[in-house]
Amino acid sequence: MIPVRPADTRAEALRPAPADGPRPPGTPRAAVVGGGIAGLAAACALVERGVEAVVFEREDSLGGRLRGWETVLADGSRATMTRGFHAFFRQYYNLRALLRRADPDLDGLVPLADYPLVHRDGPRDRFAGLPSTPPWNAAVLAALSPSFPLRDLAGVNVPAALQLLDVDTPGVYERLDHLSAREFLDAVRFPPTARHLAFEVFTRSFFASPDRLSAAELAVMFHVYFLGSSEGLLFDVPRSPFPQSLWDPLGAYLTRRGAVLRTGTPVGSVERGRDRRFRVGWGEGEAQEFDGVVLASDPGGLRALVAASPNLGDTGWRERVARLPSAPPFLVSRYWLDRPVRPHRPAFLGTAGYPTLDNISVLERYEDQARGWARRTGGSVVELHAYALAPGCDPEAERASLWEQAATVYPELRGARAVDARHELRADCPLFPPGGHADRVRVGTPDPLLAVAGDHVRVDLPVALMERAATSGFLAANTLLSRWGRPGHTVWSVPTRGRSGPLRALARAARQPGQRPEARSR
């Protein structure tokens, strides 16, 4: 199955390399270690080309960091807990193509009308109603936004700002990866509120503070959502909890195709096999042999598995995996409240300028399970997110602080009583620090039948977050398929360079040859 071409006619296709050599006899067998987005994409791509695939997932359900699990609330009702809100943007072409395998019309997703952002000091931005054509979408946002006051725009460093118009992959990493997002924004000199609302909110979606995120990653994100695509910042969300909307249907699709799904099965090692290339071990001495393997674990899982598998790859690759960084901890707090929040509260609100509060969601505005609970009880289901907390932070103190910050945004929370609450403090997301791009793990490895997938993997396309996970999963499967003489799958992305030739030329004219952006800005 080839993903449907995106509606944006300027989207670019990366077609798989031709199959490398004749198809060997028999049916190849592949292990996919990890049942998140990347692993599910790889498994789908493999079984659709006639490969026997076994998915090993350490948790009891599919979905990886987007999985869900049942919990019983204090009032006796059952609910599905997850690790929080995720936006399925329209330019996530490969992720949406993955979901279409089981849901051709994407009925499991529902659109949100807006993406409002509010700063603690008062300015508020919205992304609804902007033109769809770049660069007019960004220009109108700047013209209408209170975050870009005209009196402050005169201080913007135009040559540095123009670098956002000349994003190309992977070239932008060569130019900007040595800078942090904070250093780049300091050089550009955007107004403070614009920095918070238009840029730093997006850096924190990588679970990192601006000083710990590569400026190139920030520039790519600006390209993906503004100057590289016509879909803008509007997005869809699952209308039911993640398992019901996404992973149960996709798991059923894989099973119908012949895949074996082994949830609750943490893989302990991957070694050389006797009859086939690899031996995958789990549990108390259980093992099975495979012709190829896709490692689709999160950063910590990948580091641990490679450390426990001394014959995988070569020394340089193993050292690169060992250096793979993880982002700081983040907290998700969900409250089932005894009264509703005010009717005009949006389904999702991004926040800036607060110590740790990054967004607030009102789940009954879009999720059917939460809506049913709110109708039965007259209450609300509210979720708070705090990204990039300090390592070793006090969980109880962070929960209390997060609630107090949210109550300054939605004052009616002070009068509400929590019927129940669930809190998830995790630290298993990837980090993209300044200067780290060249050292990232790639899809390919020293072993042509071993591939890596995940949102931490280097993919030289303008993709990020969930879309990078899905894209890398398809590319990892293509790596194995080409060795088995089987056709691969096309992946799509927004244009790999700025859409306007004159604007790119203007940006390059402002940059002196061989000179780094921060030097030019002074």
Task: Describe the protein's topology.
Elements: E1 12-14, E2 29-33, H1 37-47, E3 52-57, E4 68-72, E5 78-82, E6 88-89, H2 93-100, E7 109-111, E8 117-119, E9 124-125, H3 136-144, H4 150-153, H5 158-161, H6 171-176, H7 181-188, H8 192-204, H9 215-227, E10 235-238, H10 242-256, E11 260-263, E12 267-272, E13 278-282, E14 286-290, E15 292-295, H11 299-307, H12 315-322, E16 330-337, E17 348-352, E18 357-362, H13 368-377, E19 380-386, H14 395-409, E20 418-426, E21 450-452, H15 465-483, E22 491-493, H16 501-509, H17 517-520
Parallel strand pairs: 2-3, 2-15, 3-11, 8-17, 15-21
Antiparallel strand pairs: 1-22, 4-5, 6-10, 7-10, 8-9, 12-13, 13-14, 16-19, 16-20, 17-18, 18-19
Description of the structure:
The protein is of the alpha+beta class and 522 residues long. The chain folds into three domains: 12-65 and 241-324 and 433-489, 3-Layer(bba) Sandwich (FAD/NAD(P)-binding domain); 121-233 and 503-520, no CATH class; 328-426, Polyamine Oxidase, Chain A, domain 2, CATH 3.90.660. The protein has helices spanning 37-47, 93-100, 136-144, 150-153, 158-161, 171-176, 181-188, 192-204, 215-227, 242-256, 299-307, 315-322, 368-377, 395-409, 465-483, 501-509, 517-520; strands at residues 12-14, 29-33, 52-57, 68-72, 78-82, 88-89, 109-111, 117-119, 124-125, 235-238, 260-263, 267-272, 278-282, 286-290, 292-295, 330-337, 348-352, 357-362, 380-386, 418-426, 450-452, 491-493. Helix 7 packs across helix 9 (215-227). The longest helix is centred in the last third of the chain and has 19 residues, at 465-483. It is globular and about 70 Å long. The termini are far apart. The relative contact order is 0.21.
